[in-house]
Design goal:
With about 230 residues, this protein is α/β, with parallel strands linked by helices. Helix content is about 35%, strand content about 25%. The longest helix is centred in the C-terminal third of the chain and has 26 residues.
């Protein structure tokens, strides 16, 4: 089963080549690779293009990782789609393992795995903290299911976008499966969008929680009117 890869990228010149190298090092190769340059002011696009002629570069004004991810998924034509944040890395068996699950379990719509943390500039020695849970860089999804759930919406501060999308995925009744194995590496870079706590950026989580409450109220109101 063919798959495409979407990499949302903003000023990722330091890491985009290694991220793409991990895509092309997969034991099962991708049919499409789309890098959405979300308004970068560095050499992200030129570095990404230099990795392989198979990489499609799409540029847009800075809108956030959710908008970049959604645009890229909309450009795929493969039955399966996978995301990779531009500062993360896949291990070589990641896609083969996840595709095998989706083939064997046709009622499952999304597969994710564990992720291990590494620090920027340091090699993976296998001792980093391991985390579970669905994240952008650890999942593979049936593309039609992604499109049915809708775009990933960027909240204020650009944090919480994928938390919101996963909540909508689950509310729609779609099924997911976690592989109890580390198949991706999360790079820790001081100053990056996801690094540490930041009051301004963390407002996005409050917005996401508010959206979930409003959706729950709407469902309750709809059920009560029947």
């Amino acid at each position: 089963m063919e798959y495409g890869v979407v990499i949302p990228a903003w000023n990722a010149g330091r890491t985009i080549a290694q991220a793409l190298d991990s895509v092309f090092a997969q034991s099962k190769q991708p049919a499409q690779v789309v890098v959405v340059d979300d308004g970068s002011t560095d050499d992200t696009a030129s570095i990404a293009q230099s990795v392989s002629d198979l990489v499609q570069i799409v540029k847009q004004e800075n809108q956030g990782p959710g908008a970049a991810s959604s645009r890229g998924m909309g450009l795929l034509t493969t039955p399966l789609g996978a995301f990779l944040d531009a500062d993360d890395i896949w291990l070589p068996s990641k896609m083969a393992c996840q595709i095998d699950i989706l083939v064997k379990m046709p009622d499952v719509d999304l597969v994710f795995s564990k992720m291990r943390q590494i620090r920027h500039g340091c090699a993976d020695d296998g001792t980093g903290e391991e985390r579970g849970g669905a994240t952008r860089s650890t999942l593979t999804i049936r593309r039609e299911v992604f499109l049915s759930v809708g775009d990933i919406i960027d909240p204020k501060g650009n944090r919480g976008d994928f938390v919101d999308w996963m909540a909508r995925f689950r509310e729609a009744g779609h099924r997911e499966h976690e592989i109890n194995e580390v198949l991706a590496l999360r790079r820790i870079i001081p100053g990056s969008l996801s690094f540490g706590r930041d009051i301004t950026k963390d407002k996005g989580y409050l917005e996401v929680a508010h959206r979930a409450i409003l959706r729950a109220r709407k469902r309750q109101s709809s059920t009560g009117n029947k």
